[in-house]
């Protein structure tokens, strides 16, 4: 499930042309997303760093701002 959340976040990141208007929030999101991918790869390949449920929770928290941006941009196009 964590993998699907991460891939959905990647799809939304590619789908949105400008996911974040402010540069600092974009860098913060990108850093947290890349850190999430790194932890996921280490977790599934080498050693368990955090419990799987906690990793899924972190993935949901990191991807949620992209989901909000996607919903807001789709509402602007339909209005």
Overall 3D form: elongated
What would the average pLDDT be, to the nearest integer? 90
The description of the largest β-sheet is: none
| Structure annotation, total helices | 3
Portion of residues in helices?
Answer: over 70%
N-to-C SSE series? HHH
In angstroms, what is the radius of gyration?
Answer: 14 Å
Percent of sequence in beta strands:
under 5%
User: Could you list the spans in which at least 5 consecutive residues all have pLDDT below 50?
Assistant: none
**Count the strands?**
0
Distance between the termini: 33 Å
Category by helix and strand content: mainly alpha
Q: What secondary-structure arrangement, pairings included, does this model have?
A:
Elements: H1 2-15, H2 23-45, H3 52-78
List descriptors.
mainly alpha, 3 helices, 79 residues
Could you explain how this protein is built, in words?
- The relative contact order is 0.18.
- It is elongated and about 45 Å long.
- The protein is built from 3 helices and no strands.
- The chain has 79 residues and is mainly alpha-helical.
Can I get a quick summary?
The protein has 79 residues and is mainly α. The chain has three helices and no strands.
């Amino acid at each position: 499930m964590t993998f699907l959340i991460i891939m959905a976040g990647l799809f939304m990141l590619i789908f949105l042309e400008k996911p974040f208007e402010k540069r600092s929030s974009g860098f913060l999101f990108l850093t947290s997303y890349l850190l999430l991918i790194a932890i996921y790869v280490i977790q599934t390949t080498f050693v368990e760093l955090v419990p799987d449920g906690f990793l899924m929770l972190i993935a949901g928290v990191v991807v949620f701002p992209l989901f909000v941006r996607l919903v807001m941009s789709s509402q602007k196009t339909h209005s």
